[in-house]
Request: fold
Amino acid sequence: MENEKENLFFEPHKRGLMKTPLKESTAANTVLTEIQPDFGPLTTPTKPKEISQGEPWTPTANLKMLISAVSPEIRNRDQKRGLFDNRNGLPEAKDCLHEHLSGDEYEKSQPSRKEKSLGLLCHKFLARYPNYPNPALNNDICLDEVAEELNVERRRIYDIVNVLESLHMVSRLAKNRYTWHGRHNLNQTLGTLKSVGEENKYAEQIMMIKKKEYEQEFDFSKSYTIEDPIIKSNTGQNGHPDMCFVELPGVEFRAASVNSRKDKSLRVMSQKFVMLFLVSTPQIVSLEIAAKILIGEDHVEDLDKSKFKTKIRRLYDIANVLSSLDLIKKVHVTEERGRKPAFKWTGPEISPNSSGLSPVLPFAPSDLEVRRSSKENCAKNLFSTRGKPNFTRHPSLIKLVKSIESDRRKINSAPSSPVKTNKAEGSQNSAPFPSKMAQLAAICKMQLEEQSSEPRKKVKVQLARSVHCKPVAPLDTPANAELEMTAPSLIQPLGVLPLIPSPLSSAVPVILPQAPSGPSYAIYLQPTQAQTMTPPQGLSPTVCPTPSSNATRSKDSTDTTTENTANDAPKSSASARPGSLPPGLERQGIKNRDREAAGERGSKRASMLEDSGSRKRFKEDLKGVENVSTLMVSPTSMAAVPVGNSPALTSSHPVPVQNPSSAIVNFTLQHLGLISPGVQVSTSPAPGTIPVSPRIEAVSVIPENAGTQQGRATKYDASVLVQNQTNGQSVAVTGAQQPVPVTPKGSQLVAESFFRTPGGPTKPTGSSCVDFDGANNTSVGTLFVPQRKLEVSTEDVH
DNA sequence: ACCTCCCGCCATGCT
DNA sequence: AGCATGGCGGGAGGT
Reply:
C-alpha cells in the first residue's frame, strides 16, 4: 500500500540548494547530500547508528563558516578554493581539517552531545526540504532514509516529525512515509491553533497560573483554589483534557495507526504549546507554565514532580524543533526567584485562523456566529474527507484542503519511481561538530547553501535585515478586524473567570470556527484582589476583549521577562510573511517559496551564532534594530489589557500618573505590531484598584554585549502600562523614545507605581513585567522594564 | 547543582 | 510474531 507511493517521488528534499555549489560541505552535509541515492527497501533499517565519521569540522572550519556566512565574498572565495565543497565536501573538508587537528581535537570534536541535539538534527532535517515545496513534485519523506542519512535513530526522527506533523508541515502517508508540506499550511495551522487556544482559554489559564505563582510568592492569601477550578474546567467536561489533535483538512493522518494512537503527547503537546504562544500576549511562555498548563489539563493538582519533569522534558524536545523552525527562540524570564527558561514566539503573527496574511481566506469577520456554533459543526462536517473522528478541522481551512488535496493528487499521479537515495550521508554527514559552534556553523552552512541558491542577496540581506526590518511592519490589518468583532461579545464569557469549560476545551476537536477575529480577552488579574478573579465583571479581573490575543498580555506579575531583542528580526519578517510570499522574503532576498526558509534561516542563523561571542555580536547587530518592548505591570495591579477596542478604549483614560493617553498607547502598540491598527488598547485601572503606578522600569533589552548597533537597538521605549479596568482599560504607555537605558535599573520607571493595587503594594520584587515583545516588534521597540530588570536573554537556542 | 535533553527501553498497536 | 510508533524517564553532558 503505502509502498507504492513511496516510490513515487523523486526528490523530496533537495531544495533549491543544489543550485549553487556553494553550499556544499558543511556539516550540513547531510543535508546537502540530500540528493539521494536510492534506497532499496523501505523497511526500516534499524539503527543507523554508527556514527561514523569524525567530524569534519574543526573549530576553524566553523569559524570560517560563520565568517563566510557573514561575508559573501569570503564565502565565495572559499568556495573557489574548495573549502566548501559540495556535498562530498564534508569529507574533504574534514580531511583538511583533520590534518591540523587530528588527534585530540579531532576526537573532541566528536560527538558532543550537542552535536546530537534534536535541534541540530531538526535543522538538518529541515534543510532537506524546501519551505514551500512544489506540490507537483514528490515530497515524500521516508523516515528510514532520513534516519539513515542523518545518522540517527529513527526514534529521533519521530520526535521531529511528530512536531512537524502537529503544524501540518508534514502528514503521514503510510508506514514510514510522510509527505512534506513545508510551510504552505503553516499560517493556517497557526491560525487554527490560535483559535483553539483562545477557545481553550489558554491565555486565561496562563494568567491564572501566574497569578497563583505570584500569590504564592508573596504569600498572599492563597486563593489558589479558585484557579484550579478554572483550569480544570478547561479540561473539558469529561474531565479530561482534551487531548485532541487539531487537524487540518486534507492533512489528516491517514495512517490508521496514527489515528489510533492516542495522540496524547508530542503531537498534541506541540500544538498546545504553540497555542500558548499564540494566545499569550507577550508571546513568551515559560516552560514551567507550559508544563503546568499541559499537565493541568489533566490534573493540575496532581502535579507530581515526576510528571512535571517528564512534561518539561518533552517540552524541550518540542521547543527544539520549534526553534529550528524559527518559530520560537529561547529566552529567560527573570523573576524574583531566578531565571526561568522560557521561549518567545518568533514566528509569524497570526490572526485567528484566518490567515490574515493570506488574502486568500478572507473570512468575514462577521463570522462570529459561525464561531459560536463552532466547534461542532465545523470540523467534522465540513470536511468529511477522511474524517477522523477525533480530529477536528477548522472550517477556515477548507481552502487549504483543496489545495492540499490537489497537491496530493498530483503527487499520487506522479510517476513513481523511487528515488530516494540519499545516502551518503552516513559517514559524512553527520560529522560531529564541536558543539555549539559547530552547530551554528552547520546551520549557517545550511543556510548558506540555501542562499547560495539564491544569488547572494541573501547574505547581505540578512545583515541588513536588522536594519530594515522594522518599522514598516506594524500595521497589519488583519488584526483589526478582529477587534471590532470582539467587542460584542465575548462569546465567551469574559471571563476568564468563568473560564469554565469552554466548550471547546472539552471537546476534543478543537476546531473552532472562528471568525478571524475571535475575541480574545486579556485579563489581568490583580493579585491582590485577584484572589478571586472571578467576577468578571468585577473588575479585577477584567476581561477585555481583545483582538486577538495579541493584545493580551497576560504576563503577570510573576515574571519578568526580558527578552532579548536579538532575534526579533526574524520575527518581523515572519510576521510579514503571509502564507504566500512572505514579504519578508523579498527583503531577504529569498526566493520565494523555497527560500523563504532561507530568510528565516538567516535569522535563525543569526541566532545560532550566538554561541560564540562573535555570534552574539552578530546577533546583536542583527537585532539592533529590533526592539523589545516590555511592559510591566505591577503585580498587583495587573489589569488585563484589553486590547480590543473596547469602547472605553478609545476614550483615553488618563492613566493615572503618567500614562499617556491611550491613544498613545495604541499608537505605540500598533507600531510595535502588538496590536493591529484598528485596535486600541486602553488600560485603566481596575475599578477597584486604582492603578497605582506599577513599577515599570524601562527595560532595556539587554544585550549582553551590546553591540554596536545596539545602541540603536534600544530604540525607543515606550512604556506601556496596561491596566485594565473593568471597562476601559487604560493603558499607559509612554512612548517615549528615549533610548532605552540599557540598564534597566536605572530606569526605574516612572510608572512604577502605576498599577499597584492595593493588595500588592508594591512589591518590589513582585513586579511583573510584561513584555511586549516585540512580537512584532517592529520597529519601534519599546521597552519597559519592570522594576526589576527583566532581562530576557536570549539564549541560544540550541 | 541545576538545566538540558540524549538515549534507548519497552509498551502499544498495526500488519 | 514482527515491525512501526512513540511514551517515558534515567542519567549524563553542559554550564
